[in-house]
Structure to design on (345 residues):
């Protein structure tokens, strides 16, 4: 199990985590900032200059999952992780990766009065003998207060909140433990999708509204939006798999087997194995039907109909290229064969 302590920079996450290790039997502290710091020695300066924060490096997010899993395999028990996460997509990626390894996560967020938080940041910086370094750290913390406040909209729904404005780190840790015992800081309800062990076959379905926009869904367990669909089970017809996934994900039963639009071979990119990706035309989903759409909270947090232009802002590049060709295939009434997003044959 992991107890993830989230909060603004300067909110007392690390000190609370150290106290938690004393309170929770057989627990170990893991600070992902150590992993981030190591990347400055591993990666070329050119790559580091492309990001403002090591959290923006996909390598860091993968390493956090792998390191946490390796630590738990080595020492067992409970891992206490103090780390600020304000981007929901990064939370999805990391917690989804942990869930895929069957690692339970209790997500706790520390909040406090903003005036108190800013005072704490300034006081901590004043103790640093390296004035230049202290000023950079102080400014970093202040600059990231507003992004954290903005993220509270989704954090409040995702995590158990502890207001530690007037609490010491020891008192905050006690409040976290009591909330866990009472079932208030419950395991995150993120779908546990097993990681593939080889190439996979996946089927997605495009559903259109009266304005010829198509439906996208927002998974909780990975970054970026997606088409309704999923992995084809052994022995299952791909089109039927798409129909099954649509019913499971959004509660819509398709009456007609959808028409194939394209087949795309996705190249392996470690840690992913790649495989074949199929997109089908699920036809019109009238507004009356869409109004009855149901989302399983553990898997999907939202849905929307979008245009091709709007999809460019929501889909990861590889899925957007696939979408564009699928729409062209639909317009032409044909089926396209793609390799890594490029038509062949």
């Amino acid at each position: 199990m992991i107890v993830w302590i989230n909060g603004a920079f300067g909110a007392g996450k690390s000190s609370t985590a150290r106290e938690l290790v004393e309170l929770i039997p057989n627990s170990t502290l893991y600070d992902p900032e150590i992993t981030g710091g190591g990347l400055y020695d591993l990666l070329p300066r050119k790559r580091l200059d492309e990001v403002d924060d090591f959290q923006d490096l996909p390598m860091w997010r993968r390493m956090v999952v792998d390191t946490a899993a390796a630590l738990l395999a080595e020492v067992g028990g409970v891992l206490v992780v103090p780390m600020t996460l304000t981007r929901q997509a990064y939370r999805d990626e990391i917690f989804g990766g942990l869930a895929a390894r069957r690692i339970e996560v209790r997500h706790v967020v520390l909040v406090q009065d903003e005036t108190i938080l800013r005072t704490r940041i300034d006081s901590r910086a004043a103790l640093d003998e390296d004035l230049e370094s202290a000023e950079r750290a102080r400014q970093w913390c202040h600059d990231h207060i507003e992004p954290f406040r903005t993220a509270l909209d989704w954090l409040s729904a995702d995590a158990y909140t502890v207001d530690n404005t007037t609490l010491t780190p020891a008192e905050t840790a006690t409040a976290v433990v009591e909330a866990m015992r009472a079932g208030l800081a419950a395991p995150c309800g993120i779908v546990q999708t097993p990681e593939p062990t080889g190439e996979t076959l996946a089927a997605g379905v495009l559903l259109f509204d009266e304005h010829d926009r198509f439906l996208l869904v927002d998974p909780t367990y990975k970054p970026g939006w997606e088409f309704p669909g999923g992995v084809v089970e052994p022995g299952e017809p791909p089109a039927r798999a798409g129909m099954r996934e649509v019913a499971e994900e959004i509660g819509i039963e398709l009456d007609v087997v959808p028409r194939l639009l394209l087949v795309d071979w996705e190249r392996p990119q470690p840690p992913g194995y790649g495989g074949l990706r199929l997109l089908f035309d699920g036809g019109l989903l009238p507004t009356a039907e869409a109004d009855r759409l149901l989302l399983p909270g553990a898997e999907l947090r939202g849905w929307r109909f979008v245009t091709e232009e709007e999809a460019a802002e929501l889909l990861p590049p590889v899925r957007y290229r696939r979408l564009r060709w699928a729409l062209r295939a639909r317009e032409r009434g044909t089926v396209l064969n793609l390799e890594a997003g490029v038509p062949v044959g």
About this structure: The radius of gyration is 23 Å. The first strand starts at residue 2 and ends at 7.
